[in-house]
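Reviewer comment 2.1 asked that we show a complete input and output for one of the modelled complexes. We chose the beta-D-fucopyranose case, as it is the one discussed in the main text.
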Amino acid sequence: MTTTQASAATAELSFPRGFLWGSATAAYQVEGAAAEGGRTPSIWDTFSHTPGKIVNGDTGDVADDHYHRYRDDVALMARLGLTSYRFSVSWPRITPQVTADGLGPVNPEGLAFYSALVDELIAAGITPSVTLYHWDLPQALEDAGGWTSRRTAELFGEYAEIVAAALGDRVPLFITLNEPWCSAYLGYASGVHAPGRTDDAAALSAVHHLNLAHGLATAAVRRAAPAARVALTLNLAWVVPETDSALDADAAWRVDGLQNRVFLDPVLHGHYPADVLADTAHVTDWSFVEAGDLEIIRAPLDVLGVNYYTPTQVRHWTRERPKENADGHGDTRASPWIACDDVEFPIQHGPKTDMGWSIDARGMTEVLLRVAREAPGLEIMVTESGAAFPDVVGADGRVADPDRVEYLRMHLAAVHRAVAAGAPVSGYYVWSLLDNFEWAWGYGKRFGIVHVDYDTQVRTLKNSALFYADVIRRNTVRV
Ligand code: FCB
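Response of the prediction step:
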């Protein structure tokens, strides 16, 4: 039940009873201990150790040392009153000897780490949500083709079954993939993410094999952990054409196809969007889609995870002036936007985060309502939402981050608007619990509600953590 009580100065927006309040992290971004516990390299180890790929030459070797400090970190979560924690499992900890020939032996130390983390969470009254893949593909599989190979999808299904069998007695929700858009296009087309390839045909093949991997993992989790629920997390874009001209509308439709429909359509409806297939026909014939694949991919989902950070403004590029590429995904020569030569992402004015991402919470409401319309009745969770700002610990030992507090307040209000309009949203995970390794940006971008001093590993609650704790305690956001 949702109630809205307006007063002169503030409104109290209450969330449904039982709403999950969480924070999210990802293995490579927080764990560190890259060479411990029997772990072997992932594509992010290789990529981050390649000169020039990461700002400041940062790597995830140590990160937040969460691998050793997870007990303290869970205690922090408990102090904030979090009711859920979304973390990811690092595949190269679970089957470190995997090659295209097979998974190889399961590494008991890897499973033991995640099992202990799950136990610690449960003892603290925090519900674990497990992401099976947050971008750290075992390097040996990349060497055999990575996500351009069907074999990677098959092996991912087998790996998912192992994790679900080990944790499924205690973990109620498994998220197969985090943001396959990033894995495919940033990893294989623009190359700003691992494995750093710039090959459009490879990226589209990766799109399909990631979708297939999701389908195979869904079936695997159902077999190994019948009581658990299965989700997929997508970074859906709120695509806004600059004008209502037909050319801008066409630009928006193509970007929508590549970012939203190429994932939503197969998963929800069992087909690829015809316009995307046609628009990319000069890049690939999509012959990697085999008979039966779409049936596997459209296996019913229990939850759709939505990550939302920033709107996606587009316009038709007239070629009369230099192209603007303010899509928020790095200023690269290779574009992640396949077959979008005449589309540009105009530079935005107005408030931005430290990533340069425009702040507009309307998109949060819009993407949630879109899912509610396209998949009536499907439960939705906001699996990531948050902002980077250049925080510092003040002389008083506190971290004042008013911009993040406002960002969270506005985006929570936007989630509430979607709920009030009937979208079945059951939870919200702030990105992130801790400042961490922000991929190609390294440690320079701070997304945490908890500040991390990377020299000492000291954690300091930011004011946004205190704000979030208050929201959780009241199950209400005040705007
Ligand atoms: C998302 C990623 C997450 C983090 C945030 C800022 O795309 O899933 O790991 O990098 O962006």
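The pocket of beta-D-fucopyranose is lined by residues 26, 29, 178-179, 182, 235, 307, 384, 431, 438-439, 447 (CB under 6 Å). We note this here for comparison with the apo prediction described in Section 3.2.
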